[in-house]
Design brief:
Elements: E1 5-11, H1 27-31, H2 39-55, E2 60-63, H3 71-76, H4 83-93, H5 95-102, E3 113-116, E4 126-130, H6 137-140, H7 143-153, E5 160-162, E6 180-184, E7 191-197, H8 215-225, E8 230-234, H9 237-242, E9 251-254, E10 257-261, H10 268-279, E11 286-290, H11 297-303, E12 309-311, E13 319-324, H12 325-328, H13 331-342, E14 347-353, H14 356-359, E15 369-374, H15 376-381, H16 390-403, H17 416-432
Parallel strand pairs: 1-2, 4-5, 7-8, 10-11, 13-14
Antiparallel strand pairs: 1-15, 3-4, 6-7, 9-10, 12-13
Length: 434
C-alpha cells in the first residue's frame, strides 16, 4: 500500500461563526470575546486553504457545518415555545447556553475524530472514532452530527468503520486528532501512533485551565481500532497552563518527522526513546525540537507556528510546512520557519495561508483539517460529492457569497432572522453536496 496518500477533510466554516469566548484555556478565544466576526471571510479563507492543498495534488474533502442553532438542545433544557421564543428566552436567561447552541466550532475538524488507517488497524479497514469533546459544552453537542457526516462520506463497510463516540464521561474525555500524530516511513506503510494526553482519568487536576484529553480515552480508541503500535505520551502540564489546550498547538508531525516545541511533552527524552522503540524496524524518526531560547512558549502559542500543517506534495520527498500568515508577521516565529528550510532537514519549504478569522478563535491551519491516510481503493469508495474540485469550489464560493454575512456580533444571534438565514444556507449546501 505504498501508493496511499494523506487526504485532508476540512471543516467548512458555518454561517454562525462568532466570537463567544466559550473555550477556557484557549487564549485567542477568550481575548476576542464579543468581537465582530466575519463569517463570509472565515468561510472563504478556509475554502481557499482547501483549494490550495487540492491544487498541490492532495485529496481534499469537505466536512459541512453542523446545523446551528441547536434549538433541540435548548428545548431539552426547558426553553419552550416557537423557535424565536426559545432562542430569545435562552439569550435572556442563559446566554452561555444560547451561545453554545449557536457555536460554529465544528469548523475545527482536527477535533472531529481520531483516525487509524488500514495499514495500522487490526482488521485492515480505515477506522474513525468521533471525539466526544465533553470538556466544553458547546463542543459536546457535535459528536452525533460528526458521526453521521463521517458515515455519509465513508459509507462502505468493507473499507471503513465509523464508531460511535466514547461514552460522554469525564474519565473518557476525548478531543480527537488534535492530540494524535501518526509517524511512518511513507503513508501506506505501517506507522506509529502518538496519543498525547493531558491527564489520567483518576488523578486530581488542579490547573488553571482544563487538561481536556485523558489517557484512558485514547487507550480505548487504540483498542477499538486495533492500533498496532500505539505510544501514549503525556503533554507537558506547563504547556496546557500556557494556553496549549491541544497538543497540536505545540507539535505537528508527518511521515518520519516530528516537529515540536521543547515544552510540548512532559519528558522529551523519554518521548524520543518510546517513539524510536515503537518505530524500530520500520523507520528512523527525525525529531525537530525548537527550544525556549529560539522561540519562547508564549510566542509559539501566539503565533501558532506548530499549528501549521506538514504535508508531502506529490513527487516531493521532503515536507512543506503550511503555516498561518501570523507566523510570517511574527519575527521570531518566522526566523524559526526560515531556519527549518535553510537547515536542509525534512522540511523543504514554508507556505503561508490567511486563516485570520479562525485564528482569532484559536484555530490555525491544522485545526481546520482532519488527516486521513487513504489507499486508492479508499479514495474510490469515499463519497465523491464531498471531494473538492474546481467545480465544487466554484459552487461553494457562490453559496458563501449568497448566504453569509460579513459582519456578526454575538448579539445578532438573538435575532430570529439569523435562524432562518442559517437554515436556508445549510439546506442549499445539502443540495450542493448531495
Amino acid at each position: 500500500m505504498t501508493d496511499a496518500v494523506e487526504a485532508n477533510l476540512d471543516g467548512l466554516v458555518g454561517p454562525t461563526h462568532n466570537y463567544a469566548g466559550l473555550s477556557p484555556g484557549n487564549l485567542a478565544s477568550q481575548s476576542n470575546f464579543g468581537a465582530v466576526s466575519n463569517p463570509r471571510a472565515a468561510a472563504l479563507q478556509g475554502l481557499a486553504k482547501m483549494k490550495r492543498l487540492a491544487d498541490m495534488g492532495l485529496p481534499q474533502f469537505v466536512l459541512p457545518p453542523q446545523p446551528r442553532p441547536d434549538l433541540g438542545f435548548l428545548r431539552r433544557l426547558g426553553f419552550t415555545g416557537s423557535d424565536a421564543e426559545v432562542n430569545a428566552a435562552a439569550w435572556k436567561a442563559a446566554p452561555i447556553l444560547a451561545g453554545s447552541a449557536w457555536s460554529a466550532s465544528s469548523m475545527w475538524a482536527a477535533n472531529a475524530a481520531t483516525v487509524t488507517p488500514s495499514a495500522d488497524s487490526g482488521d485492515g479497514r480505515l477506522h474513525f472514532t468521533p471525539a466526544n469533546l465533553l470538556t466544553n459544552l458547546h463542543r459536546s453537542l457535535e459528536h452525533s452530527h460528526t458521526t453521521a457526516a463521517l458515515k455519509r462520506i465513508f459509507s462502505d463497510p468493507r473499507r471503513f468503520t465509523v464508531h460511535d463516540a466514547l461514552p460522554p464521561q469525564p474519565h473518557l474525555a476525548d478531543e480527537g486528532a488534535a492530540n494524535h500524530v501518526r509517524l511512518c516511513a511513507e503513508h501506506g506503510a505501517p506507522g506509529v501512533s502518538l496519543f498525547v494526553y493531558g491527564r489520567g482519568a483518576y488523578e486530581a487536576w488542579t490547573g488553571r485551565f482544563p487538561a481536556r484529553q485523558t489517557c484512558e480515552a485514547f487507550e480505548a480508541v487504540a483498542r477499538r481500532h486495533g492500533a498496532h503500535r500505539p505510544v501514549h505520551l503525556r503533554q507537558n502540564p506547563r504547556a496546557i497552563q500556557a494556553g496549549a489546550f491541544h497538543n497540536d498547538v505545540v507539535c505537528v508531525g508527518a511521515l518520519d518527522c516530528l516537529f515540536y516545541h521543547q515544552a510540548a511533552f512532559e519528558d522529551p527524552a523519554a518521548m524520543q526513546a518510546e517513539v524510536r522503540a515503537a518505530a524500530a524496524g520500520l523507520f528512523e524518526p527525525q525529531f525537530v525540537e525548537i527550544g525556549e531560547a529560539e522561540l519562547p512558549l508564549a510566542d509559539a502559542i501566539s503565533s501558532y507556528l506548530f499549528n501549521s500543517m506538514l504535508v508531502q506534495a506529490p513527487g516531493e520527498a521532503r515536507l512543506t510546512l503550511v503555516a498561518p500568515i501570523d507566523v510570517a508577521e511574527h519575527p521570531r516565529a518566522r526566523a524559526v520557519a526560515e531556519g527549518l528550510v535553510a537547515s536542509n532537514g525534512p522540511i523543504r519549504r514554508v507556505e503561508y495561508v490567511d486563516v485570520r478569522e479562525s485564528m482569532r478563535n484559536g484555530g490555525g491551519p491544522a485545526c481546520l483539517r482532519l488527516r486521513v491516510v487513504m489507499t486508492p481503493e479508499d479514495l474510490a469508495a469515499a463519497n465523491p460529492a464531498h471531494r473538492l474540485d474546481d467545480r465544487l469550489h466554484g459552487r461553494l464560493v457562490e453559496w458563501i457569497g449568497r448566504h453569509y454575512r460579513d459582519r456578526l456580533v454575538p448579539a445578532n444571534l438573538a435575532d430570529h432572522e439569523m435562524i432562518k438565514e442559517a437554515r436556508i444556507a445549510l439546506e442549499q449546501l445539502d443540495t450542493i453536496l448531495s
